[in-house]
Write a structure and sequence with these properties.
The protein is mostly helical. Helices cover 73% and strands 0% of the residues. The chain contains nine helices and no strands. Helix 1 (9-32) runs antiparallel to helix 4 (115-141) and helix 6 packs antiparallel against helix 7 (228-251). The N and C termini lie far apart (73 Å). The chain crosses the membrane at residues 12-30, 42-62, 74-95, 124-143, 187-206, 226-244.
């Protein structure tokens, strides 16, 4: 039985610090949003949850660190799914507390009162998520540890693809942050719930798809064949979120819609469509392999050498 490779201790420590740091920041929001005796109860609950999370993280982070130098990213996908699953649950409760405060026409006193301070806290929540979530993804992808990818150009191409994943994460987080940032007129309840859980699913699934593309190709990574994530992101992020933002802007007069990210979606649709056309053209230009010829070559090169019989001369009558 082959022994597992040793864990990369710096990578294990870095990923664990980043994940637990973002969790504790979300816990600080949850605790400060409550007052009086309820704050103590919430503090106890988040501490117990963090201890349980840390126990699971202790094993997952080590397993991720053991595969960081290989072509596998299976444990990285599991850790990402587990991290986002727990993180978004906390974000959901934070969002509900802000929604309840908006419904009562007051700001949360846990942030020293005052609408201005409360608005800064909401913006700070968006900033923290937009930093922590992409950084954790980049750490789990660990492109700098892919020593098996020899050509520098190929590694740079993979890095550019991971950059597109980070941009998509920021796009999804921006749309989700519109739910808790200061707003003049609230959206319908079903629209808010649909937006939150749609972003939740995208954050759970799409980065795992990107990591699985790297893992499935193994050592011989061919970047131009990693087309599953671009197709999914084109449909689920660039097209659907464009319609969601446009609908909120037209039907609900939502002034928080980011025009810059809507422009990014349009540009991404054009660029990815051109990339797909070029990829299809590249596949069409290449000559299809002739199976019979290849089999004959293999038989000739690898088969046993059979001596040819000498020609028999004709007998003269």
């Amino acid at each position: 039985m082959v022994a597992p490779p040793p864990a990369n201790k710096p990578h294990v420590c870095l990923s664990a610090i980043l994940i637990m740091g973002s969790m504790m920041l979300m816990d600080a929001y949850l605790v400060e949003q409550n007052l009086g005796p309820r704050k103590i109860g919430v503090c106890i609950m988040v501490l117990v949850g963090d201890v349980c999370f840390l126990i699971v993280l202790r094993y997952l982070a080590v397993w991720v660190g053991s595969e960081v130098g290989t072509s596998k990213r299976g444990y990285a996908m599991i850790l990402w799914f587990f991290y986002v699953f727990v993180l978004e649950i906390k974000v959901y409760f934070i969002y509900q507390n802000y929604k309840a405060a908006d419904g009562k026409g007051r700001s949360l006193d846990g942030w020293t009162g005052g609408g201005g301070v409360d608005g800064v806290a909401r913006k700070a929540l968006t900033l923290l998520l937009s930093i922590c979530v992409p950084v954790v993804y980049i750490t789990l992808a660990a492109i700098d540890h892919m020593d098996y990818v020899r050509p520098h150009k190929k590694k740079e191409e993979i890095r550019s693809r991971l950059f597109w994943v980070v941009v998509d994460l920021l796009d999804v987080l921006d749309m989700q942050a519109n739910l808790w940032e200061p707003q003049r007129k609230g959206l319908p309840l079903w629209v808010e719930g649909l937006m939150f859980f749609y972003c939740y699913i995208l954050l759970l699934v799409l980065p795992c798809v990107s990591l699985s593309e790297i893992s499935m190709q193994g050592v011989n990574i061919v970047p131009h064949k990693m087309m599953l994530y671009p197709i999914l992101s084109l449909v689920t992020i660039n097209v659907i979120t464009l319609f969601i933002r446009g609908g909120n802007m037209v039907f609900y007069r939502d002034v928080r819609v980011s025009g810059i990210l809507m422009g990014k979606n349009v540009i991404a649709i054009v660029l990815k469509t051109c990339s797909f056309v070029q990829y299809r053209r590249h596949l069409g230009d290449g000559p299809p392999p002739v199976l019979g010829v290849e089999m004959q070559k293999n038989c000739v090169s690898h088969g046993p050498k059979v001596p040819m019989p000498l020609p028999i001369g004709k007998k003269h009558l």
